[in-house]
Specification:
mainly alpha, 12 helices, about 80% helix
Amino acid sequence: MQVTLRIAWREFAALFATPLAWVFLALSQFILAWLLLTLTERYQQQYQPLLVKLNASLGVTDLVVVPYLADPRLLMLLLLAAALLAMRLLAEERRHHTLPLLLAAPVSSSEIILGKYLGALGFALLLALLWGGMPFALQLGTQLDLGRMLAGLLGLFLLLAALCALALWVSAWSAQPAVAAVGAFVGGLLLLLLQQGGDAGVLGYLSILSHYEGFLRGQIRLADLAYFGLLIGGLLAFTVRRLDALRVQA
């Protein structure tokens, strides 16, 4: 476990050793801050007078926070984060021919993959706190449904965690960071687009958005937790098998 944690810390620190991660964090914060400001302004100018007139029970959580967490721009940034991680995790090691050195060490493939995943998960947790934490500032001026917001924040983190696992798996198949980035972006996009409205049976269950939406409604269901657990566990298991194959080839 100590080796795994060292690998995790190395991966997490390496992400911030280049300007790319810092630029991504800065730009994403700017874009999402502007988005939240736009949604808040629309609520004040359009929705609030109508809600007062109709004496409706909807509030800021329903009309600002949930649309913010479900906005396509935030989802697109999630895919870009997955692409950024895919460039870094294994593809870059293969490109610089440092992966054989890691594979030659007395460390199992499972420890390597778990360490790299935990490093990526640290970055995902940082993103979830930065992106999902901004709406909590609205609590200073209004009353929010904190339980629903925390459920949404958990859903955002699980969505990021699943995309991290996908990025790691894709990264194991390419020695070119750019190819890995495109693969992770497209793979994540397919998961998001599996279901386009309505109940689509098997595709509806496989769609990552259908499970994310449950958290946005404030529901933490066992089926949704199991979906994310199986998706992440399956992708990590496939990545371990891929790394075992690379170890044999090396």
